[in-house]
Amino acid sequence: MRFLPLNSAQRQGLLGSAMLSLLILAIVGAYYLWGESYQARMLYAVFVNLLVVVGLQVFTGNANITSFSHAAFMGIAAYVAAICVTPIAMKAISLPDAPWGLNAFELSALSAALLALLITGLLGLATGLFMARLTGVGVTIVSIAILVIVHSIFLYRTDIFKGNQALFGIPKIFDLPQITALVIVAIFIARAFRESAVGLKLRASADDEVGARAMGVDVFKVRLIAWVVGTLFFATAGIAYAFYLGTISARPFYFNFVFLTVSMLILGGLRSVTGAVFGTLMISMGLELVRWLETGPVISGIKFPEVLGLSGLLLGVVIVAVMAFLPRGIMGNREIEDFVKRKR
Q1: In sequence order, what are the residues at sequence separation of 6 or more whose Cβ sits closer than 8 angstroms to the Cβ of residue 318?
Q2: Residues contacting 227, CB < 8 A, separation 6+
Q3: What is the CATH class of 8-343?
Q4: pTM here?
Q5: How many CB atoms lie within 10 A of CB 126?
Q6: Residues β-bridged to residue 168
Q7: Cα dihedral angle (276, 279, 280, 281), rounded to 10 degrees?
Q8: pLDDT tens digits, one per residue of 298-323
Q9: Contact status, residue 242 vs residue 82, Cβ threshold 8 Å
Q10: pLDDT tens digits, residue range 198-243?
Q11: Domain residue extents for the chain
Q12: What's phi and psi for 80, nearest 5 deg?
């Protein structure tokens, strides 16, 4: 079996992915060396967000089209995996009225995850068939509609999704090592997609759609591929979310989470996988600092007042400031390996 040689961009993509992976491993290593036990949950949440933001970069970043439906796909995968993996005895309590025999079977963790990926991928394909034909604000509006529709189903089909109540009894399957491995794999896949022929054509169509079509680019096809790949990233994040917490509800998969992850991508830079990683880490650290300030801490003997809602204000300020002063984000089109080349 012969393998095609990698071109220069693909080799640089592997280098950049390896450098970002070392950064992720360094963060995890620092936690194991100096972190407290409660910080594992925080770091896990950061990595779940990172999976989503990297998935956002695959479509939104390369196509330069804003979508807000990612929380819906994440929620679908989380619920599918959770319902399938939860023991029958526990579902008899948490889902006593579930239709179609959903509370009468139990799958292994691997089977539940694969089924969640399959269902979410098929839904991504079905929605992508018309999302890929839309442009500009049309994609944004329809993606919001998808988010609202899915969230409404979560709320009103209480016999399946429990609405605002929690679906509990999900066994804890993942921990920090598993989510770390998923993040590293996701980074390599996102960079490979960005430097692939499909990614190059997608970015070309984002810069000049008419010119790309004139050069023979099938814009519908490349957008559809990116859309489906992105939904699989969101599904992976949803599965990881459900397999760690042991309980899920519809509330996290809505606008607050959408704005959080979009802010991370905007800050880092839409067109860069490195930007997606940096933006996620920076806002995550910033939010932890803000949440600490919200509690009214004592600093140098001075008691500061409680300021609830400061984290939401921070996200709004980040979006406005970045769009006003850094419209391409911190990284722009650059990747982490570009700094190494510049030093050389």
Answers
A1: 263, 266, 267, 283, 286
A2: 59, 124, 127, 128, 131, 132
A3: mainly alpha
A4: 0.93
A5: 11
A6: 247
A7: 120
A8: 676 667 667 666 677 777 777 788 87
A9: yes
A10: 999 999 998 888 888 888 889 999 999 999 999 999 999 999 999 9
A11: 8-343
A12: -60, -50
